[in-house]
Amino acid sequence: MPIGVVAIAVTVWKVEESRPPAAHRPDWPGFAVLTAGLVGVVYGLIRAGETAWSDTGVVVSLCLGVAFLIAFVAVEARVAHPMFDLSLLRTPTFLGGSVAAVAMNGSLFAMFVYLVLYLQNDLGYSAFEAGVRLLIVSGGSFVAASVAGRLTSVMPVRWLIGPGLALVGVGLLLMAGLDAGSSWTHLIPGFVLAGIGTGLVNPPLASTAVGVVPPERSGMASGANTTFRQIGMALSIATLGSIFAARLESGVNSGLRTVPALRGQGARIADTLRNGGTDQLFASTPADARGPLAGAIRSGFAGAINDLLIVTRIVALVGAVCALALIRSKDFVAQGHASPAPADGATTDAGAPPAVGSEPRPGG
User: Which CATH superfamily is domain 90-334 in?
Assistant: First the structure.
């Protein structure tokens, strides 16, 4: 709450208001079908991880979710004042920024959920101890974001967003290769690179969303970009959860094949671990089986995390390619008093007025 209070105060104090020429009623139909669609898809993915992809509830939930999302597109195309103007997706830079937003939150940020599970449930660190280790990522991001914020005024943002996502992908690659004997220090090189990549992406990504629309439409553009981030996070966490559960169950079962008391109980053990019941699990296990159980969990966890790192690495690298290919300086709209940054390979006269189609400085 204190962080929220400070953020609100700074926003009221420093951020200039922008308003559309005329106020319109909220797009309630669009809001309703988008919410229903996202709930259906995310719930279906989560339930698939808990049961099976052929489960009736999973199939119905996913089908309804997709149907509502299709309905959302139809509703937004017909509403006079939609909550999301679909025509923005025809602007390559907005589309590229949206893909990058999904990729950023769907890769490293979604992976944080499972890295925390690994640090706490597998390596045995407390919540505080796990958080301290993840500060390596935050530190790299903090430093890189300060640099990126300054660079956005002198270079095209695609050369920050694309390489930044590529660094995130390389960082996730470096984190892979875990095994039953790995310690948390194995993750440090990947933490550093991924943190730097995140710092390069976030500042220009925020300005890219609003930079391709006039000021009076910046609220919708910013909201759409934030929504894409949350969609990327929600869908990725749910999908990774299904992969994680299946891989962990398989790894644990493999490690306990020679332990009669626990043979074939991989599903129960994996479910208990995902719900943070490690202590309860060991307390209910016969003493002579706890050693093999610990080894099976370490091996299963490492294998599951490695699989997730492969998936999220691909997501980050695809986002990097799309950002480099789609984000263009000429799509940016001059924002009043803002001074444009040079277009790719171009220079501007010192006294020349801002030209529409140039990339704005942050805050413009």
Answer: MFS general substrate transporter like domains (1.20.1250.20)
